[in-house]
């Protein structure tokens, strides 16, 4: 019989999170719920239990009130519940949390350990991969489909371009995406029955005799403060849309006045041509990533641009690190964005990505060179193997940072958003090298130097056979549409477009504008556009100079991803739609009538 554990977290409701302006801390005295992605993990576990006859256990670490999450899990069909509850666990970061959970999970000899892809309060997804590393298990993150045959797991894992087909042997850690399963509907009376079921309490002393492994004491990262981010209220100018052609002309005039029709004029910092010398504890490492066509990603160039600034201030070198010897063919491009050295890690298993091999390979060269810091893109792959590396080296890791700064002592300060970007926390690390994953699209590109050259080095390492296998990578993105990352103009799609036919019309509009396209969660849930284009709380954040929302309702879980959009135009036939509270220009109209007129107006201007 399969043994399945599901790790869950109870979080405050995002929209009802309270902030104490005096202490700058989150007040957790409001309603608490199981994190949405964890609900998917529970649902998948119950489904596997019904198919394979598995024994399921829900486990959480938290204060006494977290018991409520376990009662809910039992009501949803989980068999057992375990509560890691001790003041010694308080204040734990992701690694300290993973360490406590791993100590308990290792004793249970579980075949599958499941978690949500990430928690919505702190927007962290490190715990799953860190547990996998600490217990020596395979991992599949962002699973959107999963099947079991004997001891073999076959899954589809979300990627930045589509999805990967992967395979792993048990035991394995699975983090669940939203699409893997629908939340369980609790049957009448199940909650009352769940209240009577026993819940096992586990104290810190039962896991380890050293209390310093847990809580604040065992956490390699710490938060200096919490900054509350206030979004200024937008004044929406509503334009009469009864005559679409006239309205479109008025929209273009308004956009002209707002400066939204001209490319943003950035004074891009110039990369210097001089090569910096490498120094232990002063070098900045950027982990390079390529797309399915083998091209260096824009996110990598953004990291190099910021890394170049950091290396100059620290007095060390900027080192671009890539998997497989093939990275060397990009040495010229990497150098032009600041790299002083390019290190290619070479081993046959690295030619096909697996998180286990990636983490082990980088860990070995880190111990040889002792860099000051390591920056990884907060991409699907970066979030997959980066936490595993941190757990392997017992390092602090700030996930999904939106900026990297230096303090007066030249320590890394990673700026981390939470609660949909309503707060930002500067996070420090007690361990070296310091680590962070950084969201693509949030850092400015520098002006490249064609004169700069980099020293190229190939390092061969010994890597253990990986515990998982990439079978095939698939792209689901439309290559005729501008990529979303870094796009200055974005057209957003809501369920108001009606379906795939409406999406096709909006896509044609986006092509005329030379714009990228994105969508709300409801649209991607329907499968009308790929999940990779979802913007919002469980999707991406964007910062275009112009965002045109077509049939978008404007729920907070979407508009939190638009906080940095400069100008927003909204088309919706409902005058009370929430999107008008975020829009600068509003058109209360049928989008099918209004969009052709706008398209003609944009075409005339482009000509």
How is this structure best summarized?
The protein contains 15 helices and 32 strands.
Mind explaining what this structure looks like?
The longest helix has 17 residues. The protein folds into 3 domains: about 220 residues, HUPs (Rossmann fold, 3-Layer(aba) Sandwich); about 170 residues, TPP-binding domain (Rossmann fold, 3-Layer(aba) Sandwich), CATH 3.40.50.1220; about 190 residues, 3-Layer(aba) Sandwich (Rossmann fold), CATH 3.40.50. The chain has about 600 residues and is of the alpha/beta class. Helix 4 crosses helix 11 and helix 7 crosses helix 15. A hairpin with a 2-residue loop joins strand 9 and strand 10. It has 15 helices and 32 strands. The protein has a 10-stranded mixed beta sheet, with helices on both faces. It has a 7-stranded parallel beta sheet with strand order 21-25-20-17-18-19-26.
Q: Which structural class best describes the helix and strand composition?
A: alpha/beta
How far the N terminus sits from the C terminus, by CA atoms, comes to 68 Å
Q: At the third CATH level, what is the topology name of the largest domain?
A: Rossmann fold
Radius of gyration: 25 Å
Q: Name the CATH superfamily classification of the largest domain.
A: HUPs
Mean pLDDT: 90
- Shape, per Cα inertia axes: globular
Strand tally, please? 32
Number of helices in the DSSP assignment:
15
Strand order of the largest sheet: 13-7-6-1-8-12-9-10-11-27
Model regions low in confidence, pLDDT < 50 over at least 5 residues: none
